Amino acid sequence: MNMGNMDKYDTVASANEGAVMTLLDPINTEIMVNEDDGSEMTIKLLGQDSDRYRKADLAATNRRLKVGGRKGGQVTAEELESADLSKLLAVTVEWNITSPSGERLKGAIPQEAQGKLRDIYRKWPWLKQDAIDFVTSRSNFVRASTTS
């Protein structure tokens, strides 16, 4: 068995580089476009093996352990959902979308726009789920082999 170029299995490097996810209409799965210029709506996401995702995941796990360590402590469903959203916010790095309010958002996502991004994921739960599925699918971040 010829394993060839093993670099293609470096999911950490490719997850740190990120990949672009095209937004699909949740009703008819057509590609969504920005009305002002006709460009496809996209978000760039880092993968679950990225440094930023791992850091957010470990922080969420530490919070759960702290709560569970208290006498009778239980983690709530709301806390788990909040942790998922925090991880997603940490790895959403660029956008080219029209927000639910009609605002055009393009380019790198500055730190001060995290609240706006959180609102979009809350307003469009289908996008949040699509993004989580994209981030957690390593095949979206494995580099295509340049040799056969």
Essential attributes:
single chain; 148 residues; alpha+beta; four-stranded antiparallel sheet; 5 helices; 4 strands; 14% strand; globular
Write the layout of secondary structure elements.
Blueprint: H1 11-17, E1 19-22, E2 42-45, H2 51-69, H3 77-91, E3 92-98, E4 104-108, H4 114-123, H5 125-135
Helix pairs in contact: 2-3, 3-5, 4-5
What would you note in describing this structure?
- With 148 residues, the protein is α+β, with helices and mostly antiparallel strands.
- It has one domain (10-138).
- Helix content is 42%, strand content 14%.
- It is built from five helices and four strands.
- The chain has helices at 11-17, 51-69, 77-91, 114-123, 125-135, and strands spanning 19-22, 42-45, 92-98, 104-108.
- A four-stranded antiparallel beta sheet has the order 1-2-3-4.
- It starts with 10 loop residues before the first helix and ends in a 13-residue tail after the last helix.
- The model has no long low-confidence stretch (mean pLDDT 89).
- Overall 3D shape: globular
Give the helix/strand class.
alpha+beta
| Proportion of beta-strand residues | 5-15%
| Rg of Cα set | 18 Å
Order of H and E elements: HEEHHEEHH
Cα end-to-end separation: 13 Å
How many DSSP helices?
5
Count of structural domains: 1
| Helicity level | 40-55%
Low-pLDDT ranges: none
Strand order of the largest sheet: 1-2-3-4
Largest sheet: 4 strands, antiparallel
- Quick one: how many beta strands? 4
How confident is the prediction overall: mean pLDDT?
89
